[in-house]
Amino acid sequence: MRLVVVSAGLSVPSSTRLLGDRLAAATAAHTPADVQVVELRDLAVEIAHNFTNGFPGRALADAFDAVTAADGLIVVTPVFSASYSGLFKSFFDTLSVSDPEALAGKPVLIAATGGTARHSLVLDHALRPLFSYLKAVVVPTGVYAASEDWGAEGLDGRVERAAGELAALTAGLSAARPRPTRDSFEEVTPFEERLAALRPTG
């Protein structure tokens, strides 16, 4: 399983990145996963240039490729003004312009961090609609971590539940995805033969 974490944390160290790492580790505990982290902080300049010239730089293009090729995504943003950060939204804006179907059918676990529990509704009022619009399959449980949640009861349970849902959804979609075989392709009939079969006889 190729699992990509997209983190929009700005500080170093970042609680946003920490939450992404915990979610990735919990998911990998359910199913073997090759985890890659995309730090949007490092791509800010290339994202801005992409808006003005229409072309992603090398690092941004690599991030697009990683997200597009992933079997599952974990996306984590800090909360600014009761919503996702501008950097977070800008990344997915430029990705969707580059490839409108990049997230179509892709399992996504949404998560956010903030200073107060009052912002927890950001998951359902901002993040879930965004990824539904991008045609992703969002797992039922989102994870929000306020400052007081770190080290407190409850966060570990939410992390484990969401990770289990992502692992199960990813495995289910992979198993359901049709894999073409030699026998699955239709036999090609030459056009002349099809045309002759339509002509009246006698």
Automatic annotation (TrEMBL):
Pfam families: FMN_red
Species per Swiss-Prot/TrEMBL record: Streptomyces griseoflavus Tu4000
Protein name, UniProt field: FMN reductase
Domain (NADPH-dependent FMN reductase-like): residue spans on this chain: 1-150
Gene Ontology MF terms: oxidoreductase activity
Manganese is among the record's keywords: no
Family annotation (InterPro entries): CE1759_FMN_reduct, Flavoprotein-like_sf, FMN_Rdtase-like_dom, NAD(P)H-dep_FMN_reductase
Alphabetic keyword roster: Flavoprotein, FMN, Oxidoreductase
